[in-house]
Amino acid sequence: MRLGDAPASLKSxxxxxxxxLMARLGPFEERPDVAIACxxxxxxxxxxxxxxxxxxxxxxxxxxxIVDHGLRPESDVEARTVFERLSAINIQAVxxxxxxxxxxxxxxxxxxxxxYELLTQWCAERGVLHLLLGHHREDQAETLLLRRERxxxxxxxxxxxxxxxxxxxRILRPLLSLPKARLRATVNALGxxxxxxxxxxxxxxxxxxxxQGLKDKNHDPSVARLSNEATRKGVSRAxxxxxxxxxxxxxxxxxxxxxxxxxxxGLITAPLDVRCRVLACVVTCVGGQPYAPRYKRLRNLQDxxxxxxxxxxxxxxxxxxxxxxxxxxxxxxxAAISDVAEAQGSVHWDGRFRLRxxxxxxxxxxxxxxxxxxxxxxLDVKREPVASIPPAVRPSLPAIWRDDTLLxxxxxxxxxxxxGNSDLRIAQIAFAPRNPLTTARFTLA
Length: 445
What we know:
Blueprint: H1 15-23, E1 33-37, H2 42-57, E2 61-68, H3 75-88, E3 93-97, H4 107-126, E4 130-132, H5 137-149, H6 154-157, E5 163-165, E6 170-172, H7 180-190, H8 206-216, H9 219-251, E7 252-254, E8 260-262, H10 272-286, H11 295-306, E9 314-316, E10 319-324, E11 327-332, E12 341-342, E13 346-349, E14 353-358, E15 365-368, E16 398-402, E17 405-409, E18 414-415, H12 417-420, E19 425-431
Parallel strand pairs: 1-2, 1-4, 2-3, 4-6
Antiparallel strand pairs: 5-6, 7-8, 8-11, 9-10, 10-11, 12-15, 13-14, 14-19, 15-16, 16-17, 17-18
Helix pairs in contact: 2-7, 5-8, 5-9, 9-10, 10-11
């Protein structure tokens, strides 16, 4: 499908302008290797064309990542069509297929999470440091309205950052300040066909209803005003994040087994919002969650802690918060872990641990250790490495199972003879949560 003519007053984005947009997001390596999330729509196709030319001009390379989400019967055909169109104009592309149960509820949010997981895993496995997304000014306005509707605080109302750093890569949005019409003009200038996703017009989704609402109003001024508001909130958020990072550095220790010790008393003099955000960072990290819990739930936990009324502990966002002498032990809640993955290749398990397996799985899977009696395994809980891991943490650790037989529990030093006789091996295991405790500050390029 070809798009209609873009407004004459909105010219396409030329290579020089795009080079300036990318320069704001640097630095990059001498020969940059970038990936671009590509749905086949006008926004991402414009970005793919621009980014490919930019990378090649600097002696680097670009790869378009096309996700077949499997939400509609025709999604595989659409993904293959986009791949073929890009290949025809000598742009490198890869189709990533989402596997697993069909998504039936909270479709847009869960599909987005699955898409980001595939994109980031592909980049992490290949050492690609920069993932480009095609969000534009209207997307920013929609995000701000959506978060305002949900009662977000300064973090949410800052909208999307142009630069977001994760544990393995940088997520970049070079087109965030530009209107969608300029991206459409760019696609026309490139002469590239696009695929329109019908879900973008489905009013059952909140974002689509907000998008239609913006179109019904005085569109351009509304979008520009919302975009400017997000920028102002972003300045406030950057200042706030600096205070949160300092508080975390003073009071929190992260362990490789995936838990934290938090000196809550050391936060008593910090402002309320800083205390709540510290809690958000800790539980999001330890729980392997893509997003922080709602402010109301954080505030409730903060009030319990301030009143020294924790008792036997609380749960929040897939974590247990337990008293431990003068500190808080924050660990994954075993009952909240449902992830079971084949012990094959590279696996990001439970949103927390990244494992690289060698050899054939032979039916082995990665799951939680659970409530295994350590004495039955011949392990002494008073000796290392078991002794240094709090009992509340052990059930949430990753382990290799075949049927009901425990083959390997690396953190507690257990290996079954059956595992030793197979060619299956763990080449690497690391605590790598979806959201690390701290990242680069919210960045306004």
